[in-house]
Amino acid sequence: MINFEIDGVKFNYRVAAIILNDEKNKILLNQNLAETFWFIPGGRCEPLEFSKNTLEREVEEEMGEDITIERPVFLVENLFVHADKKYHEIGIYYIAHIEGTNMAVRDEEFIREDELGKKIKFKWFNLDELKNISLQPAFLKERLQNIPDQMEIIEVKDF
Q: Which of 16-30, 50-64, 72-86 has the highest mean pLDDT?
């Protein structure tokens, strides 16, 4: 995966799938059970792997689902601190749709294990609930209420 450290700052190249229900009033989020915050499903790109292929692979690994990727929505340069470490992350957020009829499509929560054996909880949230949960990056609480028609470039500094 494309992540490395320079001068005490960790760099990540991440992609994420904004998955809405058919009515477009709920979003699927996930949470590592060792953490207290929620985030958009996705993962880090591998060298020589296109971002769309990464997203398809990550969703299949983590949820056991195939997705159709519609379009990019956000290109995010995110500077943040996690576990006392500074991060510089470049993220591409895509609108995507689940193809199967597995648990993820249903209106419920479920737990899966990733390829490293870490437990990941998935849950559907009403979009109007996002303001009341710990969602990272935090700009998503507002921006997901009205998803843009064109891709936006966003800079976030959260420290």
A: 72-86
Peptide bond into 47 cis (omega under 30): no
**Total number of domains constituting the chain:** 1
Residue 139's domain comprises 3-158
| Range 6-15 average pLDDT | 97
Based on DSSP, count helices (H) and strands (E) in the chain, helices before strands: 2, 9
Say if residue 82's pLDDT is above 60.
yes
H-run or E-run covering 60 = helix 51-63
Q: What is the CATH number of the domain that holds 75?
A: 3.90.79.10
Neighbouring CB atoms inside 10 A of 4's CB total 10
CB 73 within 8 A of CB 93: yes
Which residue type occupies 38?
A: W
Task: Give residue for tokens 């990540």.
Answer: 12
